[in-house]
Design brief:
The chain has 217 residues and is α+β, with helices and mostly antiparallel strands. 25% of the residues lie in helices and 30% in strands. It contains 4 helices and 11 strands, in the order H-H-E-E-E-E-E-E-E-E-H-H-E-E-E. Strands 3-6-8-11-10-9 form a 6-stranded antiparallel β-sheet, with helices on both faces. A 3-stranded mixed β-sheet has the order 1-4-5. A two-stranded antiparallel sheet has the order 2-7.
């Protein structure tokens, strides 16, 4: 598999897995959790986080959960594992909020910063790559109007295609009980690609957007 195609194939694999598992409920939002031997314990002093960006080692994850904030530097179109406290052969752990809670996700690009509230973020890489080349996270809404607001925010903030987005919204408003898995494509207003993949089911209480952050092509 060539380096240029592997991120796209990983994205398709993640989205397919998420779509299959969303029918069983939002727990984990369709992503497989990576098991650990148990949560480490850190002192309150160790959990104080004054750094500009988060790390993804055990202490960094604990700090992110304690502060409900995850801050990532994507200005180079990827994240060097060495910059976030991981060995080059590692797969970064998922960052998952406590049940019923969310954390603030910030991803800084060369032309701006993405800000989102989410309960789950994960990272795409391989054990032979020294970089994390993709970030995935979830947006959720409990009503069609809230969902529509999320999509229009993506048009305004990230450069998603307005015509495609409004066409999907018009269809959903005409038939709010519909079920739809649909990609709005990518916007690149922040210096990296932000892709919105919709998982909408009007019969469910919670609607989901799977957001993919990757290098600008």
């Amino acid at each position: 598999m060539s380096p240029s195609t592997s991120p796209l194939l990983r994205r398709r694999t993640v989205l397919a897995g998420a779509a299959a598992a969303l029918g069983m409920g939002l727990a984990g939002c369709g992503f497989t959790f990576r098991k650990t031997s148990g949560p480490p314990h850190f002192t309150p002093e160790e959990l104080v986080d004054n750094a500009e960006f988060s790390t993804l080692d055990e202490l960094g994850i604990a700090r992110a959960k304690a502060s409900k904030s995850l801050r990532l530097d994507f200005r180079d179109g990827s994240i060097a594992k060495s910059d976030v406290g991981l060995p080059d052969s590692a797969h970064a752990p998922d960052v998952v909020a406590a049940k019923g809670e969310k954390f603030r996700l910030s991803i800084t690009g060369s032309a701006g910063t993405l800000e989102a509230e989410t309960d789950h973020a994960r990272f795409g890489t391989t054990d032979t790559s020294p970089e994390l080349d993709t970030v995935y996270y979830f947006l959720t809404a409990t009503s069609l109007q809230e969902y529509v607001n999320l999509l229009r925010d993506g048009v305004r903030d990230y450069g998603l295609d307005a015509e495609v987005t409004e066409r999907w919204i018009s269809g959903a408003e005409a038939d709010p009980g519909r079920k739809s898995s649909y990609s709005l494509g990518d916007g690149n207003a922040l210096g990296f690609n932000v892709g919105y993949d919709l998982r909408y089911d009007g019969s469910k209480d919670t609607q989901v957007v799977i957001v993919t952050v990757s290098a600008e092509l």
